[in-house]
Sequence to fold (490 residues):
Amino acid sequence: MPVAKPDYKTFETAVYETIVAAATRLPADVTAGIKAAHDAETGDAAKTALAGILENIALAANDSTPICQDTGFPTFFFSLPPKWERTRIVEIVRRCLARATQEGVMRPNAVDSLTGKNSGDNSGELFPAFYFDEADGPDLTLKLLLKGGGSENVSCQYRLPHAPFKAGRDLAGVEKVVLHGIFEAQGFGCSPGVISVAIGSDRAQGYALAKKGLLRPLHDRSQVPALAALEERLLEEGNRLGIGTMGFGGKTTVLGVKVAAAHRHPASFYVTIAYGCWALRRKVLTFGGETHTIADY
Amino acid sequence: MKSVRLDLPADREVVRSLRVGDEVHLYGRIVTGRDAAHKLLVEKKPDDLRDILAGTFIYHCGPVVRRKGDGWEVTAAGPTTSIREEPYQAQVLKDYGLAGAIGKGGMGEKTRDGLIASGSVYLHAVGGVASLLARRIKRVVEVRLLEELGPPEAFWVFEVEDFPALVTMDSTGASLHQQVRDLSKAAFDKLIG
Fold:
């Protein structure tokens, strides 16, 4: 079968739609998780906050306004079929971000670290973040994550062994430091959150792998039985901390837990936690040229 | 849960009587100010911002705004994390005669002492409910230092109606954040054995 020529014009429209969808419409699986947390909650403050969150999700979707004013550090994960040029894709994404910023869908978030000057259009050096790999089939896939600064600030990395909690280089050690990460985050990352953990690799790839885990659907489990069991345990134990919505105290602190493992250097054992706020904004664009779809995961 | 209507500029006796756990509904003018704003207020102590800050709340928020005719429209305006203003907050409350701050995540001991000293409170708005809170902003009255600070950091003066928030730190020194931290620390210690 001949490889289709990239239709960049239609693609640009689709990328813009994906950005708007991500900023304004929370994935249905995440909304369902929040609804369940609301229904189970008994504390006044947490329940009122969760009711406000659900109302906000509906308002944002209805009026196409941002779910959260912090429209985040946009991260674009592309899987490209043959013939698609990265440089053109980057140009298109930057144009779409500028337009979405102009339209009041995205907040201008790219700040020059030296001068403090805001670029005004969500573009700058290493902003947004791009990841590229090759597509398996003929369709282009874009997975977009808009991750707020508050949740990024409480994301963290541990190095095992970690003496304060006697956390060794095994899954029991991983469990201890992840619980500590959730404890330290309190309500700062806009709980209830989704906790995505990467075990192993180097420091930089650990953060990338953990962030990628936030793209998984809320209720799936790792294919690796030991990691699936750890996900279950961390979900249950994380909620026993009682931090609750916004740190007001309550039953649900964690909406979901994702764990992935990679190889590590013999000398290193990193555990990296990407904290996703309740406003876990992700969309997946599947672009086939003549047709395209935007899904929640 | 006690629910209190608070008109701005605030009656300081009413503010002083607020307690952790009270739900507050604000009516009147509030002013946004976050990282660059707090740094500026402490380091440069500008006098030309006193008129908009006195007697009201400084809101830790970087809104999403768009032009509408000659004015502005706010599409999203939830709170940002307050703890980054911890080095400055107590001083800002005192110097500018604020009734308190609105943000998320709570603040530390320095601010707690500042709230006691100035009889002010810390209000917690729900993080991320930006579309809902934007609708409680009836009008953008004005904006100061927009060019210098950029849209997320500028001083936006909002006229609000029924703007909801929870008192999580009060003028007696009580803090919901400290209570939850202590309880969750006990739970954590038990879990890790």
Q: What stands out?
A: Chain A is about 40% helix and 20% strand.
